[in-house]
Every structure is written in structure tokens, then in C-alpha cells.
Amino acid sequence: MGCLVTHVYDWREFTHLDMIDELPVVGADGLQESLDRLAAAICG
Predict the structure, then answer these.
(1) Do the beta carbons of residue 11 and residue 41 sit within 8 Å?
(2) Gap between the Cα atoms of 20 and 3, Å rounded
(3) Of 2, 7, 21, 44, which alpha carbon lies 20 to 30 A from 36's?
(4) Are 43 and 1 in contact (CB under 8 A)?
(5) Strands (E), 4-44
(6) Residue 22: CA atoms inside 13 Å, Cβ hemisphere, count?
(7) Please, are residues 3 and 43 in contact by the beta-carbon 8 Å criterion?
């Protein structure tokens, strides 16, 4: 049994440009690690 966890952010309507420097920056590797941990927590 497998589990695929995905999440997509649509930034096209982002209007809070004054907050842009406060946003976390996560690279592809960090994002994949986070999704893998989430999948493991959900699917066991």
C-alpha cells in the first residue's frame, strides 16, 4: 500500500508584497523531505 501526499501553492494572487521577505524559503530537497515526513506520519 502506498501513499502520495502533494500540496500545491498558487502564488499568482499573492498581494502582500510587504511580507515577501518574511516567507520561508525551502528548496526542492527540503520540500521533498517535508512531504516524505508528512506521508510517513499519515500512512505509517
Answers:
(1) no
(2) 33
(3) 21
(4) yes
(5) none
(6) 4
(7) yes
Q: What confidence tens digit (pLDDT) does each residue in 6-40 have?
A: 777 777 888 888 888 887 778 889 889 988 988 88
Cell of 34: 517535508
| Cα 33 off chain centre by | 10
State the pTM of this model. 0.48
Query: In this structure, what are the phi and psi dihedrals at residue 36, rounded to the nearest 5 degrees?
Result: -65, -40
Using the 8-state DSSP alphabet, how is residue 23 labeled?
Answer: S
Q: What are the cell numbers at 20?
A: 515577501
Residue type present at position 11 = W
